[in-house]
Amino acid sequence: MMEGLLGKGKGVSANTVVRLKADWEKEYAQWRKRDLNGKRYGYIWADGIYLKHRDEEDKKSCILVVIGVNQNKVKRILSDRKRDQRKHAELERGIIGTA
Fold it and tell me: What is the pTM of this model?
């Protein structure tokens, strides 16, 4: 993936990765705090993606994502949360149990 972004034979130093990660974390924190008051969404749905951990074959995480479609038919990610597989299963049982 990095080759596609930077070109063949190019690399990124560890310091650059640390700096970029810090910048992205700040942007992400601002995005999570944005005000959704006054926004209108005709459709809202939630979905989950399971990811395997590189170092632990038996461990998975789930990223829960809430997506909305506004009156202009534009999709927006409204929320996201990372959960480990065990917590997600507990949440799923709770939701299904109350339905």
Answer: 0.52
